[in-house]
Amino acid sequence: MARRTLTVETKKRREIINLDRLIQEFVKENQVREGILFTRTLHTTSAIIINEFEPGLMTDIESFLNKVVPEIGYYHHDDPRIHPLSDKDERKNGFAHLQAILLGPGVSVSVSGGQLVLGPWQSVLFVELDGPRAKRQIELTAWGT
């Protein structure tokens, strides 16, 4: 078993980052030939998904999330009468927590021949829902031989 925590920096409110290269480097460095890799975000306002990393689709994902859980709206999480803000810099981000629930915190990917087993258009993507953030942590854990 091998484990590492990656740190990524986001520069936008919503951003999608392709993790394939970073994950493949981890697999290679740890000499995982056959096994499974699990990746998950360590934050409640981000997600990890598998999908095509194509600009039009990235825009469609953002539009979908905004339609289902819009940023502008009432969320109990953001109501200071219910959830007093402990820090003056704390964000009103109830929407981002709910969007993260829809997408999920992590994915599993098989490893075969030392390579991630992904379909021809698939990539492992980190989805920032409440950026920009200087440090977002992603945990990688691989089991195998």
What does this structure look like?
The protein has 145 residues and is of the alpha+beta class. The protein has one domain: YjbQ-like (Jelly Rolls, Sandwich). 23% of the residues lie in helices and 34% in strands. It has 3 helices and 8 strands, in the order ββαββααββββ. The protein has helices spanning 20-29, 55-68, 94-103, and strands spanning 2-8, 15-18, 34-41, 46-51, 106-112, 115-116, 123-128, 136-144. It has a 5-stranded antiparallel beta sheet with strand order 1-8-3-5-6, with helices on one face. The protein has a 3-stranded antiparallel beta sheet with strand order 2-7-4. The longest helix has 14 residues, at 55-68. It is elongated and about 55 Å long. The termini are close together. The mean pLDDT is 95.
Compute the separation of the termini in Å: 8 Å
CATH fold description: Jelly Rolls
| Total DSSP helices | 3
Overall pLDDT confidence? 95
Computed Rg: 17 Å
Low-confidence stretches: none
The first-level CATH class name: Mainly Beta
Q: H/E element string? A: EEHEEHHEEEE
Oligomer description = single chain
Strand order across the biggest sheet?
1-8-3-5-6
* Structural class assignment: alpha+beta
Question: In this structure, how is the largest beta sheet organized?
Answer: 5 strands, antiparallel
Shape: elongated
